[in-house]
Amino acid sequence: MAAPTFKLNTGHEMPFVGLGTWKSKPGEVQAAVECAIDVGYRHIDCALCYENEKEAGAGINAKINSGKVKREDLFIVSKLWNTHHDPKDVRSGLMQSLGDLKLDYLDLYLMHWPMAFANNGKIFPRDDKEQLINADVDYVETYKAMEKLLDEGLVKNIGVSNFNEFQLGRILKECKVVPANHQIEIQPYLLQEDMVQLCKKNEISLTAYSPLGSRDRPWVTKEEPNILEDPKILKIAERLGKSPAQVLIRFQVQRGINVIPKSVTPSRIESNIQVFDFELSADDETVIRSMKTSYRACTFLPAASNKYFPFRENYKE
Ligand SMILES: NC(=O)c1ccc[n+]([C@@H]2O[C@H](COP(=O)([O-])OP(=O)(O)OC[C@H]3O[C@@H](n4cnc5c(N)ncnc54)[C@H](OP(=O)(O)O)[C@@H]3O)[C@@H](O)[C@H]2O)c1
């Protein structure tokens, strides 16, 4: 059975729980997408910078061509990469994703980060000292170029990702279209309450990325906390007869937040979406909320020199 949906501020329905595809290798991601659609996922989270959109698209198209689903049953998300922030490059960034995915339109197109990089054909453009090469493009100008994609019908909704409160505030003040969605890291160590409130007030839906702590990140260390093994989560999972991942996913769903766990393992893909037949009690929620720290899995520190790096303290850009 397909997962429940919720209404975006544009009136479109977005399915709760999507399949994450970052780090899913070519050779794995097509099978993961096909498995996900078979077990009820209708929302697939893609991005140009994951460098696997051709294979993710092959999985999507295989399921459409087999008659399992229709294109309009699916909610496909992709993201404008940092190298395509110059307003003149925004459309070509989208066209590359659409071409690779072999789709005519996206359901949601997000600005992946507020930061712009030089556009020299590389996903991570670097100078001779191996430092990322920034570009001086204001994310507000990038967003205004994304608004035009809506008029062309190439995307049904637009939104942002990894913005801080100040940056989202500027989009709300200076742009015409209120973002339909904001995708940020959310897990019990990083509850993001201020952003949750800001988005609620402005009717912007939230998607939680790295909801399981992203343990397959290239820069993960042994010293970092592993949320899937946190004793508080294990205790709740054991009592309910659910997996730790199901508890983590259900917690966000109960907060009204969409979740996009990544997996290439069929049994996990299947169980990660089975979170609509149980509830966490108010006590469980209190315990999970008490886990809050300032830990963040996706820091993107190599980009910290960028003028619009979002995770600086006392940010105002
Ligand atoms: N907007 C952004 O900047 C941004 C940043 C990060 C992520 N994202 C999106 O969010 C998605 C999810 O985040 P993520 O990939 O960082 O990490 P995640 O979903 O928190 O964790 C993925 C890891 O958890 C494992 N896993 C999945 N289900 C499990 C289960 N039931 N039990 C135990 N382990 C399980 C996966 O292993 P297997 O695959 O081996 O099963 C993988 O190692 C991404 O794939 C991407 O689509 C967006």
Can you offer a commentary on this structure?
The chain has 317 residues and is of the alpha/beta class. The chain has one domain (5-303): TIM Barrel. Helix content is 33%, strand content 12%. It contains ten helices and ten strands. It has helices spanning 29-38, 53-65, 87-101, 139-151, 165-174, 193-201, 231-240, 244-254, 266-272, 282-289; strands at 5-7, 13-15, 19-20, 43-45, 75-80, 108-111, 158-161, 181-185, 205-209, 258-259. The strands form two sheets. It has an eight-stranded parallel beta sheet, covered by helices on one side. Helix 1 (29-38) packs parallel to helix 2, helix 2 (53-65) packs across helix 3 (87-101) and helix 7 crosses helix 8 (244-254). The mean pLDDT is 97. NADP nicotinamide-adenine-dinucleotide phosphate is lined by residues 20-23, 45, 112, 161-162, 183, 209-216, 228, 243, 245, 260-265, 268, 271-272, 298.
Q: Which terms summarize this structure?
A:
single chain; 317 residues; alpha/beta; TIM Barrel; 8-stranded parallel sheet; two-stranded antiparallel ribbon; binds NADP nicotinamide-adenine-dinucleotide phosphate; alcohol dehydrogenase (NADP(+)); oxidoreductase; NADP; AKR
Question: TL;DR of this structure?
Answer:
This protein is 33% helix and 12% strand. It is an alpha/beta fold and 317 residues long. It has one domain: TIM Barrel.
